[in-house]
Every structure is written in C-alpha cells, then in structure tokens.
Amino acid sequence: MRFLHVRLTWVCLIACLAARVAAADDPLPKEISFNRDIRPILSHYCFTCHGPDEGQRETELRFDVEETALAKLESGVRAVVPGDTGASELLRRVNSTDDDQRMPPADFGKRLNARQIAMLEKWIADGAKWQPHWNQVRPHRGDVPSAIADWKPLNPIDRFIHARLQEEGIAPTAPADKRTLARRLYFDLTGLPPTAAEVQAFVDDGSPDAYEKLVDKLLASPRFGERMAVWWLDVVRYADSIGYHSDNPRQVWMYRDWVIDAFNSDKPFDQFTI
C-alpha cells in the first residue's frame, strides 16, 4: 500500500511538471489581446484582492480599471508601466521567489505559470494596450465579404467562412448529398435521427428551397425546444429528482417545461434571462 502511495505521488509530480513545461513551450500569440489573453489572468489571480469587489479589495490598486492599474501608488511604484517591463511592479511581484513579495501570496494557493508570466511581459512590452469589457463595447456590424466566383453561398455567414478559408489556403468541401444533409439537420435541430420516409421525402423534393423548408419544419417541431433546452438545463444543473441522498419528487420540472416552451415560442433573450 505504501509503495502504491509513493508511485501515485511520483505520477502526480510528473504530470504537474509536464503541464508546466507544456505551458512554457506553448508559443505566445503574435499580438496580445487584453480581453482574450490578459484579463482572464488578472481576473483569476488578482481580482480577489485587486478587483471590483469593495468587500474583498485590500489595497488601492485595482486591475479591473485601467487608470488605477497604470497610476503611481502610494509606495511610488507603478504596477504597470506601458513599454517598460523593468519598471512594472506587477512583473517583479509575479516573478519574485520571496514569499513576502510574491503575488499572488503563498496562502492564495495559486501561482502563475511561465506562459502566463511571459504573456504579461509581452503585453507590457508592447505598450500594455487596454480594452474595455466586451459588454461595454457597442457592437460593430462588419462588412460582408464579396461573393466568390463559381461558389454559391447559402447564407452571408458562408462568405465569412469562405473568406477565411481562402486566407488559410483551404479549399471548401464539396456540398453534402441530400441524405447526409437530412440527417445533419435532424440531429442538429431535434437531436433525433430522421425516419427513412422523412429522408426520402427530402430527397424527392426537387424545389430550389427544399433545404429551407426542411429547416423551417424542424424549427417548428416541439422537439426543437427539447433539443435546445438541453444545454441550458445542463448549465443550471437541472435534475428530475433530489439526487444522491433521497429520491423525493421535485416540482422543478415546471422550469424545465418553461425553458422548452421558451425556445419553441422564440422568446426574446431579455425576457428569457430576466
């Protein structure tokens, strides 16, 4: 038993080391995005003491607000100095081996890996460009790429996909046959396979809008709401019973049906979430 414990300890140590090496070897993006690359690091490791929660915040320094993150602190240092990694206190703290200086502190139980530190260094070296949170940015309607000769898009979204494929030098796949399309649509929109008769009906429909008609038919099916509700109910951890400690009936099934009906009735998002 003791030998097994030792072996398991070594396996865990090797796995942790491999994870840290893999993180260090993973190349950094050519261009660092604050929202994509930096904000998640600050949120995970720094916001507990330097974030928006006044009840938990321990100092004047906040990493959720650009002005305070770049400002001179009472100690005279700046956490982030755009373009100057040597003067940025943030980098000195996350690289420190002194438990009294290192951030996050030892009792926090988490430490940045080499790749995350390198990401912060590159971001600061590149000028520490800040971005507002995505929910504070007005949506921008982009221009739809031009149509491609000898290729007929079914939807404007297809033009964006095809434009990216061209950038990557990838040829689009050939259109699927109607039997394959029927199965894909049924599984995507209802989660259930079509019957042989349903597939044949789609194959025999020679009208130019046969695909659109099948999509509309499946969207109008009660099965569509059941299919779409699966992911939302998983998020809220829905279950039909109490769970592990008893099996008493629950009345929460009414919420399940409400979610299904919301999808089937195309309830607006703001009404669904508020």
Question: How would you describe the overall organization of this protein?
Answer:
Helix 2 (34-45) packs across helix 6, helix 8 (178-189) packs across helix 9 (196-204) and helix 11 (222-235) crosses helix 12 (253-264). This protein has 3 domains: 2-133, no CATH class; 143-175, no CATH class; 178-273, no CATH class. The protein starts with a helix and ends with a helix. The protein has 13 helices and no strands. 11% of the residues are buried. The chain is mostly helical and 274 residues long.
What is the count of DSSP helices, taking H or I runs of 4+ residues?
A: 13
**Number of extended strands:** 0
The low-confidence parts are none
Total domains: 3
- What shape does the CA trace take? extended
> What is the H/E order?
HHHHHHHHHHHHH
Q: What proportion of the residues is helical, as a percent range?
A: 40-55%
Class from secondary-structure proportions: mainly alpha
- Radius of gyration over C-alpha positions, nearest whole angstrom: 27 Å
Task: Tell me, rounded to a whole number, the average pLDDT.
Answer: 85
**Distance linking N and C termini:** 54 Å
Range of strand content:
under 5%
Question: What is the oligomer described by this structure?
Answer: single chain
Largest sheet: none
